[in-house]
Amino acid sequence: MSDSKCEAHAAESVAYLNRALIRLQDIWEEIGIPEEQRLQRTNDVHKHIKGLLDLMIAEEEELKKRLMKNIESCQEELNKLCSELQLPPFEEEEGCTMLQVEKNCRTRLQVMRGHKKQRMEELKGLTAKDSELCDILCTTPFCIDHESIPTLNQLEAYRTYLDDLTKEKERRHDEFVSMKREIISCMDDLERHPETSFEADVMCEDEEEFCLSTDNIVALKLLLSQLQERKAENELLCSALRTKIHELWDRLQSPQEEREALSEHMTKSKKKNIEALQAEVKRLEVLKMQSLKSFIEAVRAEIALLWESCYYSHEQKHAFLPYHDDDFTEELLNRHEAEVSTLKTYFEDHKELFQGVTKWHENWTLYLELDRKANDPMRFNNRGGNLLKEEKQRTDLQKSLPKLEKSLKAQIDNWEEEHGKEFLVNEQKFLEYVQQQWDHHHSEKEKEKLDRQMKKSKQIQEDMLYGTSVRTPSKRRLAGTTTPGKVRRLNGTSTFTTPTSFLSSGMGGTMCQKSIQKPPLSASKSLGVKTPGHGKTPRALDRNKENLSHLNRNTPSGTLRESCRRLLNQM
Question: Which residue windows are coiled coil (predicted)?
Answer without folding.
Answer: 57-84, 267-294
